[in-house]
Design brief:
Layout (H helix, E strand, L loop, with lengths): L10 E2 L10 E3 L17 E3 L2 E3 L5 H17 L6 H14 L6 E3 L1 H12 L1 E4 L2 E6 L2 E7 L4 H5 L6 E5 L2 E2 L5 H8 L6 E7 L7 E6 L1 E4 L3 E7 L2 E6 L6 H15 L6 E5 L8 H11 L4 E6 L7 E4 L11 E5 L6 H11 L4 E4 L7 E7 L5 E10 L15 E2 L9 H10 L2 H9 L1
Parallel strand pairs: 15-16, 16-19, 19-20, 20-23
Antiparallel strand pairs: 1-21, 2-7, 3-4, 5-22, 6-13, 7-8, 9-10, 9-11, 11-12, 14-15, 17-18, 17-22, 21-22
Helix pairs in contact: 6-7, 7-8
Amino acid sequence: MARLGTPVRFALVLTVGIVAGLGMSVGRPVKAEREVVPEPNTKSVADTTVTSPVPWQDARLLAEVLEHVRREYVERISDQELIEAAIRGLIADLDPHSAYLDPEQFDEIRISTTGEYSGVGIEVALENGVVKVVSPIEDTPAFRAGVLAGDRILAVDDVPVDVENLNDTIDRMRGRIGTPVKITVARGPEPKSLEFTLARASVQVHSVTQDMLEPGLGYVKITHFSETTAPDLESAIAKLKKASGGTLRGLVLDLRNNPGGVLEAAVGVSDVFLDGGVIVSANGRAADAKFEMDAQPGDDLNGAPLIVLVNGGSASASEIVAGALQDHHRARLVGSQTYGKGSVQTVMPLSDGHAIKLTTSRYFTPSGASIHQRGIKPDVAVEDAKDGDDRALHVALDLLNNPGTIRQSSAD
């Protein structure tokens, strides 16, 4: 897999909030970053790092505003709240993807990027005013205890579920490994509730699922990009090969509604299918915001045809993968135009447990194109079906069953 020549940072290539669905896991859907401990009181301009204090006139103006608010605002606000509000406004005003993170939000991002958290292992969703179990994650405390999909969560440690604050329910189910938590659920029409006392454990949130569409034709869906995504993809392909007698004659890679994730994971996924060449390049003001990441020899499909499904919910890391495979004529893209997020965010821890998520680079596909606010056009346009019929998947199957068409397109 390609590697950065500079120290690895916590690179966010996810557009937060693209997916508006209510589905959540106890270890919520992945965001993506790489981490760096910044040097204090420095900034980078081009390739030169210089110390540059804030001009005293600007500092005085900020102090004036803070003092007016402290003395004259209708409600009393603590100095800490004022400073945090000032920082939050400063960062949020830069662009939609930069943000000031409190310790809980920072912890969420760390959980998301590693794909691991400490809890009971259930995915939940808010449905018609009820918190339901979407599914228990295999080989977790909830799974082993017999929690079932469709169970309605009533309380956690005897604290009733607040449907207006689903995050509170999720947070209550998390905690240190080995500590107990009681989950009260209702099941089906049974009038009596069920109680499960579970010991929290380390839970792995996997982002890759696989299936066999028909003999020799595999299907892999990636829901987000975390540190485990690339090895999980390799494992999924190995399982599909085994199920089909050792080789695949084609594969569908589904990136629809995948909001993004870890930059290095996107590179790793691209590298699974590419035998060489640039995967992605980036340009920013700081020296380590400029980089190029290349594929290493080896294609897990041995050149077998590949179709990538995309839509308007495919963003960021998904677009890095789609762009790399399209530019190298390794895959055909089927679906609708992608979201169009071509920037990289870096999450920088601060001294008090907070962090800032800051846009540090613009990235480019191997052809040098920027997809920012443009997206990537598929090779075969198929609109998302509203009647439940997966037309894009049908088109992908037709293309895989006619590999000559795919190879002809690759030569164009």
